[in-house]
Amino acid sequence: MRMMMMRTRTKPPPPPFSFLPHHLNQARRASRAMAAELKTVDDHKPKKIPQARTAARVAMILRQRRATRAARFAEVQERACARVLGFGAGVNSVAQLLREPHVYDYVIFADVGAEEPPTYEYIEKHVRPFCKEKGIHFEMVRSHLGTLEDHCRERKILPIKARRWCTDKFKIRPVNHFIRETVGATAEHPVILDLCFTIDEARRAAADDSVQHAYQNYPLVYDQITRAGCVEVIQKHGWPLPVKSACDFCMFHNTKHFARLLAENPKRYAEIMDMEESSTDFPKRTLISSTSLRGLKAARASSLVVIDDDEESTGGCESAWCSDRGA
Ligand code: SF4
C-alpha cells in the first residue's frame, strides 16, 4: 500500500523534446549536453564514477572542448570589435586580469551600489591604476534603475535566490547596454567577453549565455585554473587578496556574514533588517532561509546561535555574474 502511494507521488518525466518549440529544443539539448560533459569536472559530482575513469573522461572532455573552443575562438576573434573582461572584483577576475592584461580593451565592473567598502577601495587602489598603466579602459557601469537597494525598498521586494533578477537587471543588462552602445558590438562584430568561473565551477559556464552580441569565453575553465590557482597568481604579483565581492545584503550570504555585520556595524544591520521587514513577502521570504534578521539578532543576544568561525560566507558576484558559492 505504502509502495503504491509512493508511486503515485512520483514526479512525471519532462515533456519529450519534440513537444517544445524548435529553439527551446536546441537550447535544452545544448545545455544538457554541456552540463553532462562538464559535471565530471565539478568537485561535487563525480563520486559515483571510478577514479581512473573520471580522470580519463575529464581529460578527454577538456581536450575536446579546447579543440572546439580554439576553432570557434579563432573565428570570432577575426571579427570581434573588442575583448572585454567581465570584472567581479573578486579573486577570480582579479587573477584573470593579472594573468593576461595585454589581451583586454575593456574591463567592465557592474556596480549594484551595495558592495562593501573594501571592494571599492581595492578597485581604486589597485585595479584602476593597473588598468590605466596597461592602457585598458576600466568602466564601472550601473543600472538606469539606480541602486539595487533603492529598487528593493521602492518596490518592497527582496532579491530571490531562485530567480536572480538582481543579477539580470543590475549586472547583465548594464553590461549588455555598455557593450552595445559604447563598445559598439553588433551580431556581426561581437565582443569577446571573458567571464571568470574557475574549473571548480565549470558547470556554471555551460549554463550561462546571457549577453547579446558577445561571445562568452571562460579562460579560467579552459586553462584549468582553480580558485587556489587564482590566489597564487594574485600573491605572485604582490597584491593583497580582494575581499569577497557581494552586496552586503545578498541572500547567498550565510548566517555568519550577518552575525558579523551585526557585531561590526549594527547601524547597517538595522537598515538591512528594515529592508527585509518592508518587503511584502515578509516573513514568508527572508534573506537568510533559516530565520529573519530580527530573529537572528534576538538569538545572538541570548547566545542561542553560535557562529563557526571557519564557516565561509557563500554570497557573491565575483565572477562578474552572481554566484551561489562566492566563486
Ligand atoms: S551579490 Fe547577491 S544580491 Fe547582489 S546582485 Fe549578486 S546575487 Fe544579487
Describe the structure.
Among the domains are: 57-236, 3-Layer(aba) Sandwich (Rossmann fold), CATH 3.40.50.620; 255-301, no CATH class. Helices cover 48% and strands 7% of the residues. The protein has 13 helices and five strands. The protein has a five-stranded parallel β-sheet with strand order 3-2-1-4-5, sandwiched between helices. Helix 8 links the parallel strand 4 and strand 5 (214-217). The chain binds iron/sulfur cluster (SF4). The site of iron/sulfur cluster has 15 residues, from helix 7.
How is this fold's topology laid out?
Blueprint: H1 2-9, H2 22-38, H3 51-79, E1 82-87, H4 91-99, E2 106-110, H5 117-134, E3 137-141, H6 148-155, H7 165-181, E4 191-194, H8 202-207, E5 214-217, H9 219-222, H10 227-236, H11 255-264, H12 266-278, H13 293-301
Parallel strand pairs: 1-2, 1-4, 2-3, 4-5
Helix pairs in contact: 4-10, 11-12, 11-13
The structure holds iron/sulfur cluster (SF4).
Give a brief description.
The chain is an alpha/beta fold and 327 residues long.
Which outline best applies? globular
User: Which ligands accompany this protein?
Assistant: iron/sulfur cluster
Text of the CATH class of the domain at 57-236: Alpha Beta
Q: Which fold name corresponds to the CATH topology of the domain at 57-236?
A: Rossmann fold
Average of pLDDT:
79
Q: Report the portion of residues in β strands.
A: 5-15%
Give the second-level CATH assignment, the architecture of the domain at 57-236. Answer: 3-Layer(aba) Sandwich
**Cα-atom Rg, whole angstroms?**
22 Å
- In percent, how helical is the residue content? 40-55%
The count of DSSP E runs of length 2 or more, i.e. the number of strands, is 5
SS content category? alpha/beta
